[in-house]
UniProtKB/TrEMBL annotation:
Classification via HAMAP family: Methyltr_PrmA
One Pfam assignment: PrmA
Function: Methylates ribosomal protein L11.
Keywords: Cytoplasm, Methyltransferase, Ribonucleoprotein, Ribosomal protein, S-adenosyl-L-methionine, Transferase
Name of this chain's protein: Ribosomal protein L11 methyltransferase
Main location, first listed in the record: cytoplasm
EC class: transferase
GO cellular component terms, semicolon-separated: cytoplasm; ribosome
Residues holding S-adenosyl-L-methionine: T138, G159, D181, N228
EC annotation from Swiss-Prot or TrEMBL: 2.1.1.-
The encoding gene: prmA
Length: 299
């Protein structure tokens, strides 16, 4: 049976993205997408039509616009419509194109043919899951992965979304990746992306959950991990990073506004992590970190 969905879109200034994304989670979305549209960012969420009323959507739109004005930003444009499942699966494809990232990667939608290239081609069809390589936070993570010596390593991908970072790590030489996401649609998309790129479930294990589930599944501490999610969530996870790592392990943290980097770095230091490098793209920040020693008393 073909299900209908609310497609709820918000277009606003990039600095508002985290706030917008956070508010949109209150809808109980079963899929999310982010696109850069000129100088603006467009967030889209998908919610089953019977799950939420149009009155609730109207109230949320008013709240989002009030938030922006309170913070001194231009009021975002908000809209919604009912779409059918096949439309949901196809609507965003027109906005996504082949994209080189860094020096070695080429992100290619499944429905397009990559040109002749010496780059590592990463095929992707994320569906409704976050992570197409378009957004600055994903690009920063991909650049950070490219800078790591990944050959022979075992990694974790916390909040894997479409699985783009996991697949990139394997293409760049990692032996094995353990990926988790709390969204079941993201788990499906990551598994599909793994298969599309010719990797096995042993090379890329995907499961629903977060760092707790990772800690239970890992046979040994990982060499490194990626975590491209909201700053508030990263702050909650920092005390648990030691559960999947060992001294010397490294991490890549993104999903952070540039102004949030210092706060995250301060908290990390209290749990035995050192910021090795900071990278910025637009309003966004990526921290490359390393576990230096045993946990301090803050843990």
């Amino acid at each position: 049976m073909n299900q209908s969905w609310w497609e709820f879109q918000v277009t606003g200034e990039p600095s508002l993205e985290e706030l917008l994304f956070w508010r949109l989670q209150t809808l109980g979305a079963q899929g999310t997408a982010s696109q850069v549209i000129g100088q603006m960012v467009r967030l889209t969420v998908y919610v089953p039509h019977p799950q939420i009323s149009e009155e609730t959507l109207t109230q949320l739109a008013q709240q989002l616009q009030a938030d922006a004005l309170t913070l001194g930003y231009t009021s975002p444009t908000v809209g919604w419509q009912i779409i059918h499942e096949e439309d949901w699966a196809q609507s965003w494809k027109a906005f996504w194109h082949i994209q080189p990232v860094g020096k070695r990667l080429l992100i290619c939608p499944e429905w397009q043919t990559p040109p002749p290239t010496d780059r590592l081609v990463l095929r992707l069809n994320p569906g409704s899951a976050f992570g197409t390589g378009e957004h600055a936070t994903t690009q920063l993570c991909l650049l950070a992965l490219e800078a790591q010596a990944l050959t022979g390593t075992i990694l974790a991908d916390i909040g894997c979304g479409s699985g783009i970072l996991s697949v990139a790590a394997l293409l760049l030489g990692a032996d094995q990746v353990y990926a988790v996401d709390t969204d079941p649609l993201a788990v499906d998309a990551a598994q599909a992306g793994r298969d599309l790129n010719g990797f096995t479930p042993k090379q890329m294990t995907v499961a629903q959950g977060s760092i707790e589930q990772l800690a239970q599944r890992l046979p040994q501490p990982v060499d490194g991990f990626c975590c491209n999610i909201l700053a508030e969530v990263i702050l909650r996870l920092i005390p648990q990073f030691h559960e999947i790592t060992q001294p010397g392990s490294w991490g890549i943290l993104s999903g952070l506004l540039a102004a949030q980097g210092a706060q995250i770095a301060d908290v990390l230091q209290g749990y035995g992590w050192h910021v090795v490098q900071e990278q910025y793209l637009g309003d966004w920040c990526c921290l490359q970190i390393q576990r230096t020693d045993a946990l301090s008393q803050a843990a």
